[in-house]
Design a protein that fits this description.
Layout lengths: L1 E6 L13 E8 L2 H7 L8 E5 L6 H9 L5 E4 L1 H4 L6 H9 L7 E4 L13 H10 L5 E4 L6 H8 L5 E4 L3 H4 L6 H10 L5 E2 L9 H14 L4 H18 L3
Length: 238
Amino acid sequence: MIFDCHCHIETGMEAYDLASVYKRNIIFNQVDHYNTFLKQVPAGDAISLIFDYKQNYDRVKHAAESGVIQAYKIHSREQKLTPDDFPALADALEKVNSNIPVIFDAFYFDHHLLYQPYLPGIILLAERFPDKTFIVAHAGGIEILRYFFHLRTLPNIIYDLSFSLQYLEDSSLYLDLIKLIKYTDKSKIMFGTDYFYASPKFQLEVMDGIMDKLSLNAGEREAILFKNAERIFFNNQV
């Protein structure tokens, strides 16, 4: 079985090319998209919503506390967060009663350098909330090795491999991706796709190739492909 831990629904699911998927985590990076497309989320899928603590705090807080969503999302580029914003962001998280996990977008992209993912920010959050699960989306992208070394001592960090499986597959960083998977506890790694930005089928092929290369056993493969996401999104446990 496959649990796609990182997926988007705004363009529809017609082009989703992974027939073996069992569940998905549908992420909304904007509150207005959540309002528009929520009813299109397939029954049984997890739902994650941007933690818009500046303009829609009550809305996202209620979505979590009422059980509609299974995770928050922090996205520096979408939210235009700078390093100076992280203390206030942490204070806002402190006021949320729900202990659902937090997805931290860690994919470096575009020319707006001020709003790129902030590694010290996720360290700040992970240390301040040791009982909360933090999912590093895309595993750090082009900074994957830095994320691997700096976060590996934090027990509440989980890695989501979405999009980086495809984006890094033909780059020099592919070896860094393999290193992260090889030396990270397999209970802390999740397969994901970031559909519609990337092909789910191709990324599963890349994932299968890496698991074969590392000679992972059946239990480790099931953990990465399904069980970890099931546990984290529906049981809220690291």
